[in-house]
């Protein structure tokens, strides 16, 4: 009786392995392609040269709620990504290799956002200034968040390193 159960288990295990291999071969073109697919997954090398980050600068004087800030920061992050995905995919690749870090800092007013945007452009850093639609807490057209980067950490720190974390 025990020998029959062991035989069924072995048969079942081999059958599952063969079926899985057949499915993977059909879907991914074999195990060699699975290895290539795994190599394309971004990895993070802490402290390595060439690390990139994105900085989101929030206007503190508007008194936005946490949810509003989250939404406005999301708009800025997506805006930057969309601007760069086709025009400068190498920057996006470097940022993804760094695990897509994002830092949120606060600025006292709109003038500071404009000054930071100008300084960032001097470093060749992409900018995205978000204007609110005015449907909830903020007046229409109010500049709420400045998205910067992604860019090399050293350059980003020269532009925003003096600002406090939000």
Automatic annotation (TrEMBL):
EC number, UniProt record: 3.1.1.29
GO annotation, cellular component aspect: cytosol
Catalysed reaction equations from the record: an N-acyl-L-alpha-aminoacyl-tRNA + H2O = an N-acyl-L-amino acid + a tRNA + H(+)
Molecular function per GO: peptidyl-tRNA hydrolase activity
Superkingdom per UniProt: Eukaryota
Gene3D superfamilies membership: Bit1
Annotated transmembrane regions: none
InterPro entries: Pep_tRNA_hydro_II_dom_sf (IPR023476), PTH2 (IPR002833)
Keywords: Hydrolase
SUPFAM superfamilies tied to this protein: Peptidyl-tRNA hydrolase II
Similarity comment: Belongs to the PTH2 family.
UniProt name for this protein: peptidyl-tRNA hydrolase
Organism: Paramuricea clavata
């Amino acid at each position: 009786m025990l020998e029959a159960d062991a035989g069924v288990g072995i048969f079942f295990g081999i059958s599952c392995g063969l079926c899985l291999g057949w499915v993977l071969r059909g879907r991914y073109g074999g195990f060699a392609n699975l290895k290539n697919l795994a190599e394309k997954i971004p990895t993070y090398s802490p402290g390595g040269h060439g690390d990139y980050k994105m900085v989101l600068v929030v206007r503190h004087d508007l008194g936005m709620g946490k949810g509003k800030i989250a939404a406005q920061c999301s708009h800025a992050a997506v805006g930057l990504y969309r601007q760069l995905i086709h025009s400068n995919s190498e920057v996006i690749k470097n940022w993804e290799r760094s695990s897509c870090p994002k830092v949120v800092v606060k600025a006292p007013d709109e003038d500071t956002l404009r000054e930071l945007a100008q300084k960032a452009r001097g470093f060749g850093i992409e900018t995205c200034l978000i204007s609110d639609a005015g449907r909830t807490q903020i007046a229409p057209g109010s500049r709420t968040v400045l998205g910067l980067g992604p860019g090399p950490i050293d350059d980003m720190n020269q532009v925003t390193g003096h600002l406090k974390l939000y």
